[in-house]
Amino acid sequence: MTINIFIQGNSCKSQMPRLTKIEQVIVAMQDPDMGIKMKNQRLLITVIPHAMTGNDIVEWLIQKYSIMEEEALHVGNLIVKHGYIYPLKDPRTLVLRPDETPYRFQTPYFWSSQQWPASELDYAIYLTKKNIRKQGQLIDYEKDSYNMLHKRINHTWDFVVMQAKEQLRAAKQRRKADRIVLECQEQAYWLVNRPPPGAFNVQDQGPERRNRHNSRVQLNADYYKGEIEHIRKSLGRSRVKSSICLESFVKFSEQYLNHDPMMQGCPPSNPWITDDTALWTLNADMVETPTKLRVERWGFGFTELLRDPLGRCKFREYLEKEFSVENLCFWEACENIRHGESATIPQKVDEVYKQFLAPGASKWINVDSKTMEKTLQGMKSPHRFVLDDAQMHIYFLMKKDSYARYLKSDLYKNMLARAIEPQETKKSVFPFVRRQRHSSRNPALFTQALEDNSKTKSLGSLASPTAACSS
Amino acid sequence: MSERGVTLLSACISNGSFSCPQHWACPPAEMCDQTFLAITFGPCDCCSDTKPLMNIYLKNEPVNYCSLCVERMACQGLQPNETLATLKMESETLKTKLEEERAKLHDVELHQVAERVEALGQFVMKTRRTLKGHGNKVLCMDWCKDKRRIVSSSQDGKVIVWDAFTTNKEHAVTMPCTWVMACAYAPSGCAVACGGLDNKCSVYPLSLDKNENLAAKKKSVAMHTNYLSACSFTNSDMQILTSSGDGTCALWDVESGQLLQSFHGHSADVLCLDLAPSETGNTFVSGGCDKKANVWDMRSGQCIQSFETHESDINSVRYYPSGDAFASGSDDATCRLYDLRADREVAIYSKESIIFGASSVDFSLSGRLLFGGYNDYTINVWDVLKGTRVSILFGHENRVSTLRVSPDGTAFCSGSWDHTLRIWA
């Protein structure tokens, strides 16, 4: 009975699903029947076996995944950057060129997913080999690394030089083609594991994520018991048939189709495309005459109406005519408590009681007796959600009754009739003349001014400037 | 194969005559394989014996236990007939049973229902603005309710507020930590919240006085025991919801910094969260490294629903505009749609040519389009109903780390590790 808090090795593959997927692609590419046709490629005077051209790779990707050339080139490029395919010509840059440049598959020994620790010692041996071969002519960053390593692991330097010399000697006994291939393979491996400064580092993954295997949460008896309990509860929950749920998505998308700027555009024009902020001006929070689309949207659902400051304002006017505005005021007061500061909750709850719930209150609301009793009981120790039941009751009351009638009312119908339907602006005659982009008022400034002007906020109205509300 | 590799490997394991390059401070040879597990050596917090210790967390508190005490601790709470193995098996069996139950009511696929819907035409979206100014990887961004301002945070600790329309920078704050992975704009537009490797979430009120140092008025709100991965204001400036690498989410009161509710249930880092746009507004969804997406009740702290169909870490979750479903993007290179009423996964958005994980997802206003920012530097646009890919957008030169649609749906913004943000429309 052991708990593996740190599991080595096994977790590596699962931590890098992208590498597994790249490897699947590579294996598919090497399939004898469906893979890329490899040939002997000529590199100056040497003939390298089992190579392919950049073009072959791109063509194969286009065919296999039914994608366009740009995407195929992009995917191929990423595979090369991760060191799974390396170029034979100009091996210092890992880039896929869609032409006759020869490429080869990296040997699985060097794959990133193998997670050989690319240690300082290995890198030192590699650089020493290169140094000896090129007689001291290393590239800048490699020279810096070499000098730094020399200082750092000086005590093993004899071993390093000995290993390097041994490997060079063994390599000399190979055929030229093999030698080139091995050099390129090694070079590609080190380009991935020790990228030149400024170049892209594929191994950069961000801060470490301790996943399930390195968990900070103890997978002990309590945890499993909690899970079992939770699953048992889930088994008992009621579900809705898929056909009904999915149908609702289709309906929702259809209903909002005209309101989605990315689908149908947004008359007069999308400000980001034409640099014209008319759309935002027309749809500002409190306008004299709203647009048709906006007024239509109030009819989609009660939340849409309440969420829009203008919509809520107009609804309030309607309720005032119907003498049931206290419902809306109560709902707003509850929202204020739910989302307000913790410190002011008891005081606010008390005020709500005095205004809305106490017998004979000025804005007494009609709640059923069971909810009222529960609320009054809860108010003895007021917390953030104590008015939730009452709020929910009033919300659904408004939704079923007042909201439904509002949509049929003259007030709403007039609003709809008078609403603006902006014309789609024609594309400007001189498309290259860029409009001046004006900055807008920072919302922080606006609210600051509001706070300065009105130190005391009345209960029942949130920060929306209801004073500016006119029919 | 390569002689060099073989020589080195055997030297490492046998810990032969030369010093092991991996463990400079390696204790005597017999303990070599122990060095991965035991980072400290000393008196155990439980039994007080001096032994190699494991650094673990019990109820989010760091403790040092010897391996014997760890095993004993784990087996606490077991009944005489139970072992951890049997509990685990029971849990697995129940999970399978749950999946069967969920499958019973699944009578039709989404794309079948969507057959009668018109297919989308040619889709053209271009970069309309490029915001340059971050000196390092952009990690997170959020829109202001005024539909044009955004806040973005980056690896070097900088948090910048932009007017994306004019591309002007309006405010800038330098956090005392690096990797600021979470940032959020307050609903009023008067403050921003951000956090990252400092394990905290801090709220900065935005001042319009150019000379004022924003950092001076900073308010530290949330305290976690590991990095902050995501944060979001609830319907007002007064409360913040956070998720963290310590496996928990939490709801905080901004004014007092008090913890209002904490949410336990994930067994690994929580990477993302999103608040439900529902009428009653009391739930949120979170996704984590344990491949689970959990739906929580903010009032009680209970997990209401749980979905575990992804094959790897869930990087991003976002609710469908109606609130009846949510989408998730994961390292397994797929995005999935989960329906809350049907209580199951209803669609998978994937393609064989997409190899890299999705880091960020968001819906268009009508919910017809799903935008996914991927780690292969591209943005894929999916038709939510038909399940097909509509378009692929190139432009970024490094992985796309964050993506949000603007509040009025006119554009979306993507932030990337190539130091820039782009507005697409």
Automatic annotation (TrEMBL), chain A:
Stretches assigned to the G protein gamma domain: 224-295
Q: Which residues form the RGS domain?
A: 301-416
Q: How is this protein annotated for GO cellular component?
A: cytoplasm; neuron projection; plasma membrane
What keywords would UniProt list here?
Signal transduction inhibitor
Gene Ontology terms describing biological process: G protein-coupled receptor signaling pathway; intracellular signal transduction; negative regulation of signal transduction; regulation of G protein-coupled receptor signaling pathway
Matching entries from InterPro entries are given as: DEP_dom, G-protein_gamma-like_dom, GGL_sf, RGS, RGS6/7/9/11, RGS6/7/9/11_DHEX_sf, RGS_DHEX, RGS_sf
Pfam families (alphabetical):
DEP (PF00610), G-gamma (PF00631), RGS (PF00615), RGS_DHEX (PF18148)
State the source organism's domain of life: Eukaryota
Domain DEP, residue spans = 32-107
Q: Which GO terms describe its molecular function?
A: GTPase activator activity
Q: Which PANTHER family match?
A: LP21163P (PTHR45746), REGULATOR OF G-PROTEIN SIGNALING 11 (PTHR45746:SF3)
For this entry, the protein name equals Regulator of G protein signaling 11
> From which source organism is this entry?
Paramormyrops kingsleyae
Automatic annotation (TrEMBL), chain B:
Segments traversing the membrane: none
Family per similarity comment: Belongs to the WD repeat G protein beta family.
List, alphabetically, the CDD domains matched: WD40
WD repeat segments run 131-172, 221-262, 263-306, 307-348, 360-392, 393-425
Keyword annotations for this protein?
Answer: Repeat, Transducer, WD repeat
Organism of derivation: Paramormyrops kingsleyae
Gene Ontology annotations of biological process type: signal transduction
Q: Which domain of life is it from?
A: Eukaryota
**Leader peptide range in chain numbering:** none
| Quaternary context | May interact with RGS9; this interaction stabilizes both proteins and increases RGS9 GTPase-activating protein (GAP) activity, hence accelerating the deactivation of D(2) dopamine receptor-mediated signaling.
Q: Which Pfam families match?
A: WD40_Gbeta
Gene3D superfamilies from the xrefs?
A: YVTN repeat-like/Quinoprotein amine dehydrogenase
Task: Provide the protein name.
Answer: Guanine nucleotide binding protein (G protein), beta 5b
